[in-house]
Automatic annotation (TrEMBL):
It comes from Turnera subulata. This is Fibronectin type III-like domain-containing protein. GO terms for biological process: arabinan catabolic process; xylan catabolic process. Keywords: Glycosidase, Hydrolase, Signal. Pfam families: Fn3-like (PF14310), Glyco_hydro_3 (PF00933), Glyco_hydro_3_C (PF01915). One of its GO terms (molecular function) is alpha-L-arabinofuranosidase activity. Residues 1-25 form the signal peptide. Residues 692-762 form the Fibronectin type III-like domain. InterPro entries: BXL, Fn3-like, GH, Glyco_hydro_3_C, Glyco_hydro_3_C_sf, Glyco_hydro_3_N, Glyco_hydro_3_N_sf, Ig-like_fold.
């Protein structure tokens, strides 16, 4: 047992020192390099035999340094030591955050729009390589509390920028791929000893759970109590986290500030220990959002807890690490007051130390020793940032083939709008210092003579006096490119939106400029959440609209590549772009996903909202045309039940439609070998090469009450040359793909006629499921 005295605190501080070194680092852009130490500092690790020889310490003698023992045993030994002898194993230079530059990839919402799993993983690998290099240079730690994988339940949420959108399955796939890119050490991906699997860097899926209100009309995340039906919890809020743990094998989960059904997320044993550890089998530690425990005491006033009660509750619930000072200040007194046992602390410490061991803090990680300055902001990584921005660009409108522009015909360009010369706005939040930002203006200037007019002094556009000069520029130019939209002054952490409109005078700017324009008009939009731009969609003077999210440091060149046809866009919207009136139909604080017709409650996300939208989830055009045809599909599945599998009733609107064995609970089934298998041919029938995102959905049998309209079950992005075709095959798990979460929160496989649709119903086929005994 750890002695509850200074040595406990020391061991605990040690864990904190290493693990809390990059709080909230959304690692697409938090790294940098240091010109002052081009060769890097020497590599050192706790069990380096020479490290403490001058203190007369033989590190080999400590069991926690014995490489022949398992990490579990070594961590247990460490937790038992009184470690003052090694007390100068400290943070060293790891906390030096004076890091001047690193590759700033597009924000997550933009990368998500690429719908390309391999891109997500590749970005993770590039980020972790830069992280390792910076670590070697003494300029970064190895734990990154990233990615943010909360589903965007409401279009007003200020942190949509950090997330992969509104679909729990797509969000989960993003999480699994990005986490594997960050964490996996090449060659050890398939190691079966998951408690010893080495880590390149440690990643963290956050914020668990039902966290998606930041500050809306005075309702703050610190005091918000999310009232969530268990059905929505299982189906929507927890699923990305489950996929992050099970498919990504993430080494950490962060719990959130808010309460869920009255209980602070970080103090809920069902959410933490029982679900994350018990059901999902996390290999790693659970950490609080920063100062969550203090928030629990001072913000939620939960159970009238004293500080000692609070740390006892969270530790017992399964919270291993406090990003804050409550554990260091109050755990000792909590033990003295008999509120927790030392064993509770030991258990958590072991989880923390095993992660440090897997990172190589104790034994080193020689395969990364050669990484240094050359690996940060490398040409390859910067090029990847540009590629990601191009892949994430979504073409929303393109009348009469306005785009791509023909360079030869364009001599003069009017480049207009508050984001035309965007720099910081492109990299969004949690950004480090980018290697080198190239603005849209810089990139477009290489294509002709540019007349730049901001049109607004900033995104809020409160002053209309700059519109007139912008319209004058448009009247003279061969083409007008308006770069508009929102930024962190409108949607951000602690800042939810009130409406879905463009702010201030931006609508006037766009309409007046379009009206005055001599040549074609292209509108480029920055935003994370959707914007009601019906006016531009319907304005015949606006020929083309592109959405770029917040495209990172190479956003400028990516936009120019798309506009001038060097790249054919293929991204898809990762969330629904609602009409402005949607925001008046439901408060942000109402958590239910399903519509309630009697209350006029419209439901949330494409899975449940059946009204009209400006652009639906998954929308995106191309400069070419694609057509699909179904090559092969298994259209019926008969599943043999054994005597332990029982039929489970689900609610149908019409009882006479209720099949004899309506469903089987997926918990009762061994589903590994039940697959859905189909293949579609994707033909490029146009005259330009292009990439197509093929999205497959399932629709449940008709008549089941209160279920989703459809759900994404798989997606693949494929490149198809002009006139060519490619066969795309999906082999998916049957239960994952056809699942329905019922009112009691059971995940079931219904019998009957399911439908698989690909694209927006371009191709669809029935899939009949029956059970036999
Ligand atoms: C880097 O390495 C070179 C050659 O080994 C050496 O001359 C130089 O002093 C080193 N610089 C630093 C800052 O260690
Ligand atoms: C790094 O440390 C090792 C072992 O202590 C030593 O042999 C080596 O010379 C050091 N390298 C540098 C560059 O300081
Ligand atoms: C998907 O991303 C990878 C980068 O990892 C890229 O090489 C590939 O071309 C992309 N696929 C498509 C079809 O765009
Ligand atoms: C790990 O497994 C995957 C999938 O089976 C395989 O493609 C990959 O090559 C394996 N990696 C190693 C290092 O064995
Ligand atoms: C956590 O859950 C496990 C079972 O999964 C149980 O054995 C253990 O006692 C729980 N720990 C706490 C602190 O509740
Ligand atoms: C564009 O922005 C950069 C950086 O903010 C600034 O230095 C530059 O002067 C701006 N360009 C124009 C034409 O205003
Ligand atoms: C609008 O901007 C113009 C030009 O910068 C300035 O003269 C005017 O005072 C501003 N008006 C307001 C209301 O801020
Ligand atoms: C538009 O600009 C005018 C004049 O500069 C200003 O008075 C008005 O408040 C602005 N409108 C909005 C909605 O910001
Ligand atoms: C598209 O072409 C049609 C037919 O030539 C024309 O009537 C229409 O105005 C054009 N629209 C745009 C936005 O260029
Ligand atoms: C698309 O493919 C289908 C066959 O799946 C075919 O019937 C149809 O004519 C094709 N459409 C185009 C525009 O090529
Ligand atoms: C229920 O379904 C049966 C059979 O299709 C039909 O005859 C009956 O009218 C339906 N009842 C209702 C209330 O829709
Ligand atoms: C969606 O709405 C349309 C028209 O209002 C209706 O016909 C359709 O059945 C609805 N679909 C679902 C799944 O509720």
């Amino acid at each position: 047992m750890a002695k509850i005295n200074d040595s406990f605190l020391f061991v605990y501080y040690l864990a904190i020192a290493f693990l809390v070194n990059s709080a909230d680092a959304n690692s697409y852009s938090t790294l940098g390099h240091d010109d002052a130490t081009p060769n890097g500092s020497n590599f050192t690790f706790v069990c380096d035999p020479e490290r403490y020889s001058n203190l007369g310490l033989d590190m080999k003698a400590f069991p926690f340094c014995d490489k022949s023992l398992s990490y579990d045993v070594r961590a247990s030994d460490l937790v038992k030591q009184a470690l003052h002898g090694v007390s100068n194993v400290g943070p060293g230079t790891f906390f030096d955050d004076l890091v001047p530059g690193s590759t700033s990839f597009p924000t997550v919402i933009t990368s998500a729009a690429a719908f390309n799993e391999s891109l997500w993983k590749t970005i993770g690998q590039a980020v972790s390589t830069e992280a390792r290099a910076m670590y070697n240079l003494g300029r970064a730690g190895l734990t990154y509390w990233s990615p943010n994988i909360n589903v965007v339940r409401d279009p007003r949420w200020g942190r949509a920028i950090e997330t992969p959108g509104e679909d729990p399955f797509v969000v989960g796939k993003y999480a699994a791929n990005y986490v594997r890119g960050l964490q996996d050490v090449e060659g050890t991906e398939n190691s079966t000893d998951l408690n010893s699997r080495p880590l390149k860097v440690s990643s963290c899926c956050k914020h668990y759970a039902a966290y998606d209100v930041d500050n809306w009309k005075g309702v703050e995340r610190y005091s918000f109590d999310a009232r969530v039906a268990e059905q929505d919890m299982v189906e929507t809020f927890l699923r990305p986290f489950e996929m992050c743990v099970k498919e990504g094998d993430v080494s950490s989960i962060m719990c959130s500030y808010n309460r869920v059904d009255g209980i602070p997320a970080c103090a809920d044993p069902k959410l933490l220990n029982q679900t994350i550890r018990g059901e999902w089998d996390l290999h790693g530690y659970i950490v609080s959002d920063c100062d969550s425990i203090e928030v629990l005491v001072d913000g939620h006033h939960w159970l009238g807890d004293t500080k000692e009660d609070a740390v006892a509750h969270t530790l017992r619930a399964g919270l291993d690490l406090d990003c804050g000072d409550y554990y260091t200040k109050y755990v000792q007194t909590s033990v003295q007051q008999g509120k927790i046992r030392e064993a509770d602390i030991d258990r958590s410490l072991k989880y923390l130390y095993v992660v440090l061991m897997r990172l190589g803090f104790f034994d080193g990680n020689p395969q990364y020793n050669s990484l240094g300055k050359k690996d940060v902001c490398s040409e390859e990584n910067v090029e990847l940032a540009r590629e990601a921005a191009r892949e994430g660009t979504v073409l929303l409108k393109n009348v009469n083939e306005t785009l791509p522009l023909d360079s030869h015909k364009i001599k003069t360009l009017a480049v207009i709008g508050p984001h035309a010369n965007a720099t910081a706005a492109m990299v969004g939040n949690y950004a480090g210092v980018p290697c080198k930002i190239i603005s849209p203006l810089d990139a477009l200037s290489t294509h002709g003579e540019v007349d730049y007019q901001a049109g607004c002094s900033d995104a809020k556009c409160r002053n209309g006096s700059l519109i007139f000069p912008a319209a004058q520029a448009a009247a003279k130019a061969d083409v007008t490119i308006i770069v508009a939209g929102i930024d962190l002054s409108i949607e951000a952490e602690s800042l939810d939106r009130d409406d879905l409109l463009l702010p201030g005078n931006q609508t006037q700017l766009i309409n007046q400029v379009a009206n005055a324009a001599k040549g074609p008009v292209v509108l480029v939009l920055f935003s994370a959440g959707g914007l009601d731009i019906s006016f531009a969609k319907n304005n015949p003077k606006i020929g083309a609209i592109l959405w770029v999210g917040y495209p990172g440091e190479r956003g400028g060149p990516a936009i120019a590549d798309v506009i001038f046809g060097k790249y054919n866009p293929g991204g898809r919207l990762p969330l629904t772009w609602h009409e402005a009136s949607y925001a008046d139909m439901l408060p942000m604080t109402s958590m239910p996903l399903r519509p309630v017709d009697s209350l006029g409650y419209p439901g949330r996300t494409y899975k449940f909202f059946n009204g009209s939208a400006v652009f639906p989830f998954g929308y995106g055009l191309s400069y070419t045309n694609f057509n699909y045809s179904l090559k092969s599909a298994v259209k019926s599945k008969q599943i043999q039940l054994n005597k332990f599998q029982h039929c489970y009733g689900i609610k149908y609107g019409n009882d006479s439609h209720n099949p004899p064995c309506p469903s089987i609970r997926i918990d009762d089934m061994d589903c590994k070998n039940h697959k859905i298998d189909f293949e579609v041919e994707v033909q490029n029938t146009g005259s330009r090469d292009g990439s197509e995102v093929v999205i497959a959905y399932s629709k449940p049998p008709q008549g089941i009450l209160a279920t989703h309209i459809k759900q994404v079950i798989g997606f693949q992005r494929v490149f198809v040359p002009a006139g060519g075709s490619k066969n795309v095959r999906f082999v998916l798990n049957l239960c994952d793909s056809l699942r329905v979460v019922d009112y009691n929160a059971y995940t079931v496989l219904p019998s009957g006629g399911h439908t698989i649709t690909i694209g927006d119903d371009i191709v669809s086929f029935p899939l009949n499921v029956s059970f036999s005994s």
